[in-house]
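A student in our group prepared the protein record below, which I am reviewing. This is what I was given:
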Amino acid sequence: MITTAKGRLGRIVPAVAIIGAGALLLAGCSSGSTSSAGGKGSEKFDYLGADTNTEISTVLTLMSKDQCSAENAAQPLSVGTTPGTGVDQKMQLLAGQNALPAISTASGTPSLMTQFVEAKKIVNITEALGDDSSNILPAAQSIISKLYGGTDSYVLPTEFNIEGIWYNKKIFADNGITVPETWDALVAASEKLEAAGVQPITADGKDGWPITRLIGNYIFRDQGADALQAVKDGKAKLTDAAYVKAADAVASLGQGGAFGPSVGSIDYNGMENAFLTGGAAMMYNGSWTLSNFNDPAQNTIGLENIAYMPFPAVTGGKGSIDDTPANIGIPVMLGQNAYGTNTQAWVKCIAKNYGDLALANGGVVSGFKVNTVPTDLPELTQVVQAKVAATTTATLWFEALFSPKQTTVSQTNAALLATGALTGEAFMQMVQDAGQ
C-alpha cells in the first residue's frame, strides 16, 4: 500500500478556496434525488484518485477482472490520478463544472463535503446501495455520520483506521508496568519510565496531530463522545473549563518529560523510528502504521513486542473506553452527473467485495464487512481487523469539525503546549479565536 500519512489525516485547504468553491456550487446546483439512477450513467467508470494512493485503484482493477467483471463489461473502469496536495481544489473545480467523475477520492475537508452534499453534486450512497448498505460497518457509518451529518452515507469507506496507543511489551515488562486503563495510570507509568531513563512517549511535534489527538481523546473520555460536536454547534466553547482541563492534562504530561526533550523537532518518520527501534515505550498512532510494523527493515523490536491499547478512561468521565477513536482514511465519492444504473451496479459490487479483497491483497482494513479473514495475516493486522469488526461506535479526532484555520493553529502550536510554553487555557483560546 502506498499512502502518505498526511493523506490519511485529512488535508488542510485554505478557507478562501472553500468559500470560492461554495459560490461555484451554488451557481451550479442540480435538481432531483442525489441517488437517482435513471440512465446508464457515464460511458466509463472513471476513477480519479490522489497520486499518493495506489491501493484503491489496485483493488478496483482487480475487481474489474474478477468479482465485478460483468459490471466492468457494461461500464469499463478507467483510472486517472491528480496530485495529492491539490485534491480538494481539483474536486471543487470539477464540482463547479458539474464534471465530477463516476468515482473519485473524496475531499479531506468535511465542510467541503457538506457543500457537495447540499449542492447535490455527489450520490447518496445509502440510497444507491439499498439493502447492500449493510456491507458498510457500523463503526465506519458512525464516523461518516459524525463527519458529514445525517444518517446516510455519501462516501465509500475504502479504509478504516482505528487509533490508540501502541506500546512496547518488553519495556513495560522490564519496568513492571501494566497496561494503563485510566489517564492517572498512564501518567504514573510515564513518570516511572522517565525515572528509569526510558522515554515514555514518542510524538510527532512538527505536525502536531499526535499531540492534539491526546487532547481530543481526553475530552471524549471526560465529556462524552459528542463533546466537540457541541463546540461546533455553539453549545460549548473550547475555552470552557471542561475543555481547558484536557489541554492542561496533556501539557502536564509533557512538562513531566513524557515526550522527551525536543518533541518540537520530531517529525512523523522520527516518531515511528523512535518507537520501532526501542527508543520510546509508547506511541499514539493509527492502524495505518501496520505497514511500518510489518516491515522488518524498520521494526527492529519485533512484532511480538508491539501491542495496542485503547486510549485510557478519565476517572469520573462521561465517556466510555469502548468508544474507539477512528477515521475513514481516504474514502471515495460518486459524482451525481455521471451516475446511472451501470454505476449503481458497480457500487453494489464494491460494497460486497472490497473489504475481503483489500484485506487479502494489501492487508488493508476497510470500512466494509469482511467475509473471510486470511489466515496468513500478520497478528497485529488480525487484532485490528477484529477490533474494527467488533466496534459499533467511533469518535472523531480533535480537529475533525474545525475550520482549516483552526486546524492549522491547533497543530502548529501543539508542541508548545507539550513543552509547557503554552498553558492549556492559552492554547484553547488560540484555537477558539481561529474559528471566529
